[in-house]
Amino acid sequence: MGWVLVISAIVGVIPESGPHIIFVMMFAKGLIPVSVLVTSSIVQDGHGMLPLLSYTPKDAIYIKLFNLIVGLAVGTALYMVGM
Question: Which keywords does the record carry (predicted)?
Answer without folding.
Answer: Membrane, Transmembrane, Transmembrane helix
